[in-house]
Amino acid sequence: MTGPVTELRRLLRETMTFHDLPDADSYSIRELSEFLNVSLRTLRFYEQSGLLKPTRQGSRRLYSPEDAERLSVIVTLRELEVSVPAIKRLLHSMDQTGSLRDVRPELTQILAALESDNSARIDELTRINSRLGDARKALTS
């Protein structure tokens, strides 16, 4: 497999919390759910959001290796707290242009903003913990 999603998956590989899927012609929703440690409901939500388009055999969803690769990128970005609309926009751009190059600056900016937000949250939680400690001390003295 080649293409922008493959390239993005390769770049994100170190941040993924799961291993490569075993090779197969297709995967069931349950197999992907268990492998990626996400709920069936989450996978259905990604489909309803337009992030995935598995084929159907009756009511059964079948995911291609390309779908599984795309899903691993989606799950990784969500674990990093990238919003679903941002992921959808990034994937759509990659699908349209056939290139990761055009979305790299936007993705880098999104990740930098999230990192900054997390640092601010850590600072706020540190202040709250300090106040909690002060309150606990006041109650035990």
TrEMBL record:
CDD domains: HTH_MerR-like (cd00592). SUPFAM superfamilies: Putative DNA-binding domain (SSF46955). PROSITE patterns: HTH_MERR_2 (PS50937). Gene3D superfamilies: 1.10.1660.10. Signal peptide: none annotated. The keyword Glycosyltransferase does not apply. This is MerR family transcriptional regulator. InterPro entries: DNA-bd_dom_put_sf, MerR-type_HTH_dom, MerR_fam. Keywords: DNA-binding. Residues 26-93 form the HTH merR-type domain.
